[in-house]
């Protein structure tokens, strides 16, 4: 029965997704609201089932469950549930309420869970494509909107390209190691005295393919356009769950099967990290659209998180996991605020539209200011701790240059985060936004409280992420 | 475990600030409540600070009122608080000046609740920073000051407030982030962020140099050491007066305190190596800034520059590594905190009566506001170090310390002090004497009871410390002597050998 027990959460999700889809298709009335609610409940139940599912490797290594995958799964579920709660009001306002929306998100989440638990390059690709296809459709979800369609198309074409590169990398790795199973690849690479050129190229291609999805520079080109073009509710989802899932997989692949060739790819990851931090910081300066700003901000954040991977150590993985967890909460809060930006039912996206927010709606301004400060890494907010841990991992691994680049880009990034606060607090104006819905209030309230109070109780997250990181390094005792 | 008085002092203002945000009907009611909550909270903290002053035992080596609690046990980071002779007076200074700043802003009408909350938040941060004994806690408090200060300057500041607020924030952040790297490195090296452990963890000299530069960047910007001071005139000039008082009197001390708490004990070799540079920066500060002050046309900016010049003197005192020099620097820090706060209060008094602060539009106030004139004159004299005021004691001690090290250091610092007399007297002449200029719209009433209440305690303290300096020096003598002894021990050739061994 262990196979069933281990598979239970994902079986449950898949079955429920089918039922949701069928009920949507065969019902005459519009049930999108009920289905969205059901999806959120579904995620909660799945999270509970994940705790119950035993550790194990099933189907001859195709699917793996341990503390690491559980941690990443929970983050993904949290991000997806948060994004769904934010979506209801926005989709209604912009007239894109359809029952497919929550169903697609559930399918994407299934793909992510498969991706996170992949123990074989084939499962990896399967999960990757299941997730990606759902995301392409979501990006173009406002199908009568030109920008949304453009975003969907752009994302699809570039995504297909990156999938191709990923697949090519997988085939190279398979060709040079003789297996697609993670443990087998690790064994094959450990045996060889030096890496063959083919396997190195294979690893680079896999890294590129995955780097595209987490929008690490220089594979970030799609991010600003897709973030801007896609409906805000979709962007909120893009910024959280898929990033975490692909990042978790990246950690597992690079430090699992590809770990023996660490020396080969460490420099590459360092370059990705540095480039992401720099482009994230510089690209955002000139932006006047808040969604584009957040796109560059997310590129920068991925750069910081990559620092932990570049360290390649247990401390590094732990730092990255903490960073991702904090990032998800901050992103949900920020996008909650962005989704709340609407006037007479029409969404507004310019930063200048926020002028005078502090005197009109102090609470909203405070929440967004907290998020911006936290993203800039100003203590005592949670974003600071994320940066603190990744810098510690970088210094621990003697990546001093990377750490210094991180410091410099933090200062540059602080400038544009401050600009948002400046517009809200110092500039005069009257935004006159619509009344916020309960769902948005809940999400931004919870994430603001979590961001502010994290400083008083930081140890649970570090304990949990330690557990998760140790699952990735079984040889190192807890 | 004893009574957690430090925790109480740190978190009480935060609780006060949170209380203000309980909805309370009309805006007027919430503004009134916010004022009174802020005042009472800060007064209670002041009483607690007075208790620590009384209970403090100057004979004990090490820290008193210590508190420890688990925080992030996996990483050996804990909630650690404590006071020694060095930090004791800074906590007291913060506790004293916050209620004064709140009183000084009693007439503020724009978004009073947010304003008062920001000041209480600032008090939490400053007291927390001065009493933190864990490096990470120190860093968090040190850096978190930016948030309330940014808002105070940006929302309630003068005409060019936005420029000043952003400049202040970015400058300070750019300075502090290198310290974050230093913090991370030291944590990695020692395995803990406990400051007492870090003080006794030897660090290889070539690393010390890098760490020293990182500390110099952050503390130097906060203390406005020349040439890292350029944010200061803008921030001081544009901040609302109570904000300027906190900036000049308390926040600038954070940097100097950082040098004393981190650079000297943790990086002894690098501190000695960089001492000539620090002397040069300090002296440049004193002399160059004094000339810059002479050229100012605005009273507030002139006092701001005078504040930078005095920070130069303090830096010189710290890096003499002599007991007397460091005690002088500490004394000067406390005294400067009191005097500069009083001078800015005087500026605020003029401002409240509708005066312009331009020096060419002021004048002749001595005959119309005699009590104010007397106070201003007194504090100006204290600022330039007239014997009998606290300013004199600090300056003379620093001089004595400096002359033991190098004649020219003492000589040039002394020259700077003479320059300070020059520009302060120019200011006094323009403001108080001369003939009265265009003051058509200004009210000419002398000090009100509230203004008396703010200025008189400061005057008494300045005078008291001037006549009985031992009240202060005995309290920090043990701490400073320990600091200097540890430094001498670390610099002795024997410890070099010990460090050379792996």
UniProtKB/TrEMBL annotation, chain A:
Keywords: Cell membrane, Membrane, NAD, Quinone, Translocase, Transmembrane, Transmembrane helix, Transport, Ubiquinone
GO biological-process terms attached to the record: ATP synthesis coupled electron transport
GO CC entries: endomembrane system; plasma membrane
Domain NADH:quinone oxidoreductase/Mrp antiporter transmembrane: start-end pairs: 118-412
InterPro entries (alphabetical): NADH-Q_OxRdtase_suN/2, ND/Mrp_TM
Membrane-crossing segments per the record: 6-26, 33-51, 71-89, 101-118, 124-144, 156-176, 188-212, 268-286, 293-315, 321-342, 363-385, 397-418, 438-457
Enzyme Commission number, as recorded: 7.1.1.-
Membrane topology label: Multi-pass membrane protein
Subunit structure comment from the entry: NDH-1 is composed of 14 different subunits. Subunits NuoA, H, J, K, L, M, N constitute the membrane sector of the complex.
Known function: NDH-1 shuttles electrons from NADH, via FMN and iron-sulfur (Fe-S) centers, to quinones in the respiratory chain. The immediate electron acceptor for the enzyme in this species is believed to be ubiquinone. Couples the redox reaction to proton translocation (for every two electrons transferred, four hydrogen ions are translocated across the cytoplasmic membrane), and thus conserves the redox energy in a proton gradient.
Protein name as it appears in the record: NADH-quinone oxidoreductase subunit N
Organism: Acidiphilium rubrum
From TrEMBL, chain B:
Membrane topology: Multi-pass membrane protein
Cross-referenced InterPro entries: NADH_Q_OxRdtase_chainM/4, NADH_UbQ_OxRdtase, ND/Mrp_TM
One Gene Ontology molecular-function label: NADH dehydrogenase (ubiquinone) activity
Cellular component GO terms, alphabetical: endomembrane system; membrane
Pfam family, one: Proton_antipo_M
Keywords: Membrane, Transmembrane, Transmembrane helix
Domain NADH:quinone oxidoreductase/Mrp antiporter transmembrane: from-to ranges: 132-415
Protein's GO biological process: ATP synthesis coupled electron transport; electron transport coupled proton transport
Sequence intervals crossing the membrane: 6-22, 34-54, 85-103, 115-132, 138-156, 168-190, 210-229, 241-260, 272-295, 302-324, 330-351, 371-393, 405-432, 452-472
Transmembrane recorded as keyword: yes
Domain of life, per lineage: Bacteria
Compartment list: Endomembrane system; Membrane
NCBIfam families: NDH_I_M, PRK05846.1-3
UniProt record similarity statement: Belongs to the complex I subunit 4 family.
PANTHER family given in the database record: NADH-UBIQUINONE OXIDOREDUCTASE CHAIN 4
Protein name: NADH dehydrogenase subunit M
């Amino acid at each position: 029965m262990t196979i069933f027990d281990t598979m239970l959460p994902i079986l449950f999700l898949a079955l429920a997704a089918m039922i949701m889809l069928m009920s949507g298709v065969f019902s005459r009335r519009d049930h999108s609201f009920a289905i969205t609610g059901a999806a959120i409940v579904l995620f909660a139940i799945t999270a509970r089932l994940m705790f119950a599912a035993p550790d194990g490797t099933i189907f001859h290594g195709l699917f793996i469950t341990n503390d690491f995958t559980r941690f990443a799964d929970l983050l993904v579920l949290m991000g997806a549930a948060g994004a769904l709660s934010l979506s209801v009001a926005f989709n209604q306002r912009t007239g894109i309420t359809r029952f497919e929306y929550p169903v697609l998100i559930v399918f994407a989440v299934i793909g992510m869970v498969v991706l996170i638990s992949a123990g074989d390059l084939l499962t990896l690709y399967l999960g990757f494509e299941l997730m990606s296809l759902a995301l392409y459709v979501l990006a173009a979800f406002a199908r009568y909107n030109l920008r949304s369609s453009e975003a969907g198309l752009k994302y699809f074409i570039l995504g297909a390209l990156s999938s191709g590169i990923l697949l090519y990398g997988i085939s190279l790795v398979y060709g040079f190691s003789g297996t697609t199973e993670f443990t087998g690849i690790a064994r094959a690479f450990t045996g060889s005295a030096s890496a063959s050129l083919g396997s190195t190229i294979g690893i680079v291609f896999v890294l590129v393919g995955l780097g595209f999805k987490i929008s690490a520079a220089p594979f970030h080109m799609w991010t600003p356009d897709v973030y801007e073009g896609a409906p805000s509710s979709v962007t909120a989802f893009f910024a959280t769950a898929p990033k975490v899932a692909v990042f978790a997989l990246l950690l597992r692949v690079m430090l699992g099967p590809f770990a023996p060739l660490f020396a080969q790819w460490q420099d590459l990851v360092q370059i990705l990290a540095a480039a992401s931090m720099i482009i994230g910081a510089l690209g955002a300066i000139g932006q006047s659209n808040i969604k584009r700003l957040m796109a560059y901000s997310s590129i920068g954040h991925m750069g910081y998180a990559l620092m932990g991977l570049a360290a390649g150590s247990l401390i590094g993985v732990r730092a990255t996991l903490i960073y991702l967890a904090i990032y998800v909460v901050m992103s949900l809060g920020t996008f909650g605020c962005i989704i709340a930006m609407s006037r007479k039912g029409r969404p507004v996206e310019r930063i200048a539209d926020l002028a005078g927010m502090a005197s009109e709606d102090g609470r909203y301004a405070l929440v967004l200011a907290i998020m911006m400060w936290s993203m800039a890494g100003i203590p005592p907010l949670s974003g600071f701790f994320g940066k603190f841990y990744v810098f510690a991992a970088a210094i621990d691994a003697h990546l001093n240059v990377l750490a210094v680049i991180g410091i410099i880009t933090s200062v540059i990034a602080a400038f544009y985060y401050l600009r948002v606060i400046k517009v809200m607090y110092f500039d005069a104006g009257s935004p006159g936004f619509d009344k916020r819905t309960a769902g948005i209030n809940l999400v931004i309230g919870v994430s603001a409280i979590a961001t502010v109070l994290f400083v008083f109780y930081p140890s649970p997250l570090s304990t949990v992420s330690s557990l998760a990181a140790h699952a990735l390094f079984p040889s190192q005792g807890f | 475990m004893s009574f957690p008085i430090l925790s109480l002092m740190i978190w009480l203002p935060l609780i006060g600030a949170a209380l203000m945000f309980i909805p309370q009907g009309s805006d007027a009611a919430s503004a009134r409540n916010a004022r009174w909550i802020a005042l009472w909270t800060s007064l209670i903290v002041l009483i607690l600070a007075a208790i620590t002053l009384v209970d403090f035992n100057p004979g004990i080596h090490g820290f008193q009122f210590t508190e420890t609690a688990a925080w992030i046990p996996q990483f050996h980071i804990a909630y650690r608080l404590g006071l020694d002779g060095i930090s004791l007076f800074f906590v007291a200074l913060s506790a004293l000046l916050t209620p004064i700043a709140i009183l000084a802003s009693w007439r503020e009408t724009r978004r009073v609740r947010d304003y008062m909350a920001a000041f209480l938040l600032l008090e939490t941060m400053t007291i927390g920073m001065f009493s933190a004994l864990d490096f990470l806690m120190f860093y968090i408090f040190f850096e978190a000051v930016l948030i309330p200060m940014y808002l105070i300057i940006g929302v309630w500041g003068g005409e060019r407030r936005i420029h000043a607020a952003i400049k202040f924030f970015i400058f300070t952040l750019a300075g502090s982030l290198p310290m974050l790297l230093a913090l991370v490195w030291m944590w990695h090296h020692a395995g803990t962020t406990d400051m007492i452990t870090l003080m006794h963890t030897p660090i290889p000299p070539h690393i010390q140099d890098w760490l020293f530069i990182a500390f110099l960047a952050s503390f130097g910007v906060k203390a406005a050491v020349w040439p890292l001071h350029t944010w200061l005139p803008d921030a001081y000039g544009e901040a609302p007066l109570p904000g300027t008082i906190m900036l000049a009197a308390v926040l600038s001390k954070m940097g100097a305190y950082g040098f004393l708490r981190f650079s000297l004990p943790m990086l002894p070799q690098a501190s000695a190596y960089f001492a000539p540079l620090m002397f040069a920066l300090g002296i440049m500060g004193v002399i160059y800034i004094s000339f810059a002050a002479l050229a100012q046309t605005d009273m507030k900016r002139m006092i701001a520059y005078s504040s930078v010049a005095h920070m130069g003197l303090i830096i010189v005192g710290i890096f003499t590594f002599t007991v007397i020099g460091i005690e002088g620097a500490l004394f000067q820090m406390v005294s400067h905190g009191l005097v500069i706060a009083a001078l800015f209060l005087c500026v605020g008094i003029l401002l409240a009566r509708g005066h312009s602060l331009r020096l060419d539009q002021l004048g002749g106030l001595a005959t119309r506001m005699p009590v104010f004139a007397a106070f201003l004159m007194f504090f100006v004299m204290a600022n330039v170090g007239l014997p009998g005021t606290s300013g004199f004691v600090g300056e003379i001690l620093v001089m004595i310390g400096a002359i033991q090290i190098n004649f020219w250091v003492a000589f040039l610092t002394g020259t700077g002090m003479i320059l300070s007399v020059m520009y302060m007297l120019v200011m006094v002449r323009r403001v108080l004497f001369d003939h009265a200029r265009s003051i058509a719209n200004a009210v000419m009433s002398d000090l009100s009871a509230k203004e008396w209440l703010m200025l008189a305690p400061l005057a008494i303290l300045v005078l008291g410390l001037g006549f009985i300096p031992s009240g202060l020096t005995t309290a920090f003598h043990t701490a400073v002597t320990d600091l200097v002894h540890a430094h001498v021990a670390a610099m002795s050739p024997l410890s070099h050998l010990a460090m050379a061994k792996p």
